[in-house]
Amino acid sequence: MNKIYIIGVGLIGGSLALDIKKKRPEATIYGIDNSEQHLLEALELNIIDNKATIEDLDKADLVILSIPVDAAVELLPKVLDKVSDFGLVVDVGSTKLDICKVIENHPKRRNFLAMHPIAGTEFSGPKAAISNLFQHKTNIVCEVEKTAFKLQERALNLFTEIGMRMRYMNPESHDKHIAYVSHLSHISAFMLGKTVIEKEKNERDIFDMAGSGFESTVRLAKSSPAMWTPIFKQNKANVVETLEDYIKNLTQFKNMMQNDDFEGVFNEMKDTNYIKQILNGIK
Amino acid sequence: MNKIYIIGVGLIGGSLALDIKKKRPEATIYGIDNSEQHLLEALELNIIDNKATIEDLDKADLVILSIPVDAAVELLPKVLDKVSDFGLVVDVGSTKLDICKVIENHPKRRNFLAMHPIAGTEFSGPKAAISNLFQHKTNIVCEVEKTAFKLQERALNLFTEIGMRMRYMNPESHDKHIAYVSHLSHISAFMLGKTVIEKEKNERDIFDMAGSGFESTVRLAKSSPAMWTPIFKQNKANVVETLEDYIKNLTQFKNMMQNDDFEGVFNEMKDTNYIKQILNGIK
């Protein structure tokens, strides 16, 4: 695997480049990005070795597509058109149904593998790229049976080497469950941030009162709108369902408080403490 | 200040004891607690030097009341009855209006100082006590003018020495603002945890998909119901108001999604990214 092309040299693409370089010192890593500024930064930070364009992809052993999910759905067919019979394309976006659909009948379907490495931070761009981001994290692999065996193996070995454990799932299940464990957390944090800013914007002093609890709960509200808007759009039905459940639970909690049912309030929290065991299980 | 009594040797009381010991090596720290088990743990962990009871408080130079806010409102008048004219009582609970009210006409009002050191973790009990918890954190001080000058000074010096910056505020403002920057974060996390557990309880595997984003957003849902229920009860009106604002914002976000107004969704997130500057200001 000598020629690796990364399309989108931001947080995820850049962090993958850093880890892959360590595991494949013989490979040359090429960066492709809409933003000339990001390419220059990625070169300067030694994330990529060279710039490239879509036209060069016929020489690729591996192409990693790490761009916003709306752009990915548009670009993936063109990328597959370009790669050779021996080239492998993986995408690493946060939604999997639309991307798998858009190439289901593509003549090079067997050259594609859909993944979602579940890792990240609230930052974005090449400067946000960090080493070992994927260590001990989960990589969801979709429709693995539709990828040529030797190409599967190439990708799975590489992602195992950078520290990930694989989990196999169909795209529908992926998008449904990820709405709960990831997308809802983001909206919950964004709306918490909004609610507090609206109330307190004229009283900057008040934020002196914000402790580490607020800080960790609202952290995801720093995330990139350009990345998250297309995710919510593609996963609209699932995300709307999670929001309905969440709003229902919040409303019920509020009603308990208004009815002075503090035994109910206590029990809600007591039951939810079960999250401790679940989070311990993640580690 | 030779005799310091800590009523409630849990996370906050225990952590205060650890820091105060370092700054006042000459002092003896006495623990008072409903739970004999907690007292034994606190002794074993060297958090306190001796056990004591309410009857001993006439000998106290300083009493720190760090128990759930409903118990604090009941116990504070009795504690003030007991202390000598030279004893200082501070309470460190998360609500301030009810506690200030309950002793407003107490003959020893000038022996009391109301504080809220804004620090903590999601854990509880003596084993959760840690050193330096209060370093660089904010301590809200209420109705400072109602405390005898020499006693104020004693408390403010001590809390400054353990690393806190003081902010002065009336109890009404404290309870109103803390509902936004602290209490709402807790309910938001608890209901996020509940929503995800309800949906996924039969699919434990799914939590493999939960990344660090979910983990930090839901962290506060590990918090103690015994501590938080009385806080929500005492601060009911303010907390219900924050919940109404939060639910309104979530509903509006959901409606935008359902109406395919993804420009609106983008702008909501973009505007809320302003939380970055605010959080940088906290540090």
From TrEMBL, chains A, B:
GO terms for biological process: tyrosine biosynthetic process. Gene3D superfamilies: 6-phosphogluconate dehydrogenase C-terminal like domain, NAD(P)-binding Rossmann-like Domain. The keyword Oxidoreductase applies. Keywords: Oxidoreductase. Pfam families: PDH_C (PF20463), PDH_N (PF02153). The keyword Oxidoreductase applies. Residues 2-283 form the Prephenate/arogenate dehydrogenase domain. It comes from the Bacteria. One of its GO terms (molecular function) is prephenate dehydrogenase (NADP+) activity. InterPro entries: 6-PGluconate_DH-like_C_sf, NAD(P)-bd_dom_sf, PDH_C, PDH_N, Preph/Arog_dehydrog, Prephen_DH. This is Prephenate dehydrogenase. It comes from Lacinutrix venerupis.
